[in-house]
Write a structure and sequence with these properties.
This protein has eleven helices and nine strands. It is an alpha/beta fold. It has three domains: about 80 residues, Orthogonal Bundle (Arc Repressor Mutant, subunit A); about 100 residues, 3-Layer(aba) Sandwich (D-Maltodextrin-Binding Protein, domain 2), CATH 3.40.190.10; about 80 residues, Periplasmic binding protein-like II (D-Maltodextrin-Binding Protein, domain 2, 3-Layer(aba) Sandwich), CATH 3.40.190.10. The longest helix is centred in the first third of the chain and has 28 residues. This is LysR family transcriptional regulator.
Length: about 300
């Protein structure tokens, strides 16, 4: 043999275990193989090197001189390989990379992520707030929080809650407008981002006709948490997902004038690649997030702790 020519690695691994235990039976137990399979692999490697590696004695196996020379070399090699894999696995589990849609990141996850890190102090967190849909096969991302209908092939998907929406405004604006007794009263109110597709959907669900966004000045503030800040300042009525603004609703900075929360059958989802479902840091975050959802004081319409499935 020359260069890297060597017996099959599987047979080498079997020899190392048998040489360490001086027992085909115990080597088989370690490797999940039958004694006959271990014996076959030893025969294969002996034929390949052209030397006997074991001698069978009345009291059990003993190594030949050649076997004695190979054993420590191979044990050290396998120990180094195991240490190498252990190190990269430890390094990988030291940092959890999240890709999160901006509103979920700012309004829901950011105020709570510290609790996850308190429970798992050895796991660092990198959170990217982005609308980009990551490709788990290409991007170095462990978990994504996505919004949409799903499903996405190849991913495990846990449905979190519906992207419900309803008009929300500040108490001082409500005082200026006067009582809002009927959804149609909003047709005369200043609306933030009136060209948002949620406005006509909500008015239709409320049975209100006559809304025409083209008659209003165009504005697009982007993400929901930015629009919410404008609403708190009293600049207009926003169309928002109440779950994301529960604190402002609870402390009175915002008010929800109507109970109706419409939706378009879109949900927020916890997603990760199916082959990595049992990676410790992914499992830890999944279990923490789903527990947080269950414990939340707000109703999570459409919440489901079970995965929707993976392709």
């Amino acid at each position: 043999m020359s260069g890297r020519s060597m017996p099959p690695l599987a047979a080498v691994r079997v020899f190392e275990a048998a040489a360490r235990h001086l027992s085909f039976t115990r080597a088989g137990e370690e490797l999940g193989m039958s004694q006959a399979a271990v014996s076959y692999q030893i025969k294969l490697i002996e034929e390949r090197v052209g030397l006997k590696l074991f001698l069978r004695r009345p009291r059990g196996l003993v190594l030949t001189e050649a076997g004695e020379r190979l054993r420590p070399v191979l044990t050290e090699a396998f120990d180094m390989i195991a240490a190498g894999f252990g190190q990269i696995m430890a390094d990988d589990n030291a940092l959890l990379h999240l890709s999160v849609v901006p509103t979920f990141s700012a309004a829901w996850l950011a105020p709570r992520i510290g609790f996850f890190q308190m429970q798992h102090p050895k796991i660092g967190v990198r959170m990217d707030s982005t609308r980009e849909i990551v490709d788990f096969r290409r991007d170095a991302v462990d978990i994504a929080i996505r919004a949409g209908r799903g499903p996405w092939p190849g991913l495990v998907q846990h449905r979190l809650f519906a992207t419900g929406f309803t008009p929300i405004l500040s108490p001082k604006l409500l005082e200026r407008l006067g009582p809002l007794k009927d959804p149609a009263d909003l047709l005369e109110a200043p609306l933030l981002d009136p060209h948002d597709l949620w406005w006509p959907l909500w008015f239709a669900a409320a049975g209100v006709s006559g809304f025409d966004a083209t008659q209003r000045p165009f504005s697009d503030m982007g993400d929901q948490h930015v629009v919410a800040r404008a609403a708190i300042a009293g600049h207009g009525v926003a169309i928002l997902t109440p779950v994301f603004h529960e604190e402002a609703l609870r402390d009175g900075r915002l008010v929800q004038p109507f109970e109706l929360v419409a939706d378009e059958e879109h949900f927020y989802w916890l997603c990760y690649a199916e082959p990595r479902r049992n990676v410790p840091k992914i499992r830890a975050f999944r279990e923490w997030l789903l527990a947080e959802m269950t414990a939340s004081p707000s109703p999570m319409t459409g919440f489901g702790a079970r995965p929707e499935g993976a392709a």
